[in-house]
What we know:
Elements: H1 2-13, H2 18-115
Amino acid sequence: MERIALEAARLLFSDGGAGWIVAVLLGLACLHLHRETLRAQEARIDDTGSVATALERASQSNAAVAAALESRTRVLEELSRLASEIARGVDRNDERARDKFEEILRRLSDVQHQGRP
């Protein structure tokens, strides 16, 4: 480890101090990359917040749609029940109407038979 440190120090001081210039430029590049990385992470966090807000709004919309669909389903079930009751009522009324019609026909026939000698 000491050998690597001594070699690095020798390279920094060799060639008229050009190593220091390279080291400073590398440090500045690292600082710039670090700042850009922080900006990118902040942008990702902001995007994540925006996505979370959009998902929450979509979830609320989906809940509202589900409630509306449930309400519509209940209304359709009630309409179906009422239609069944009306159909049963019509069937009962048809039977009553047939009974009355048959009674009318019977009376007409009785009247016809009474009118014939």
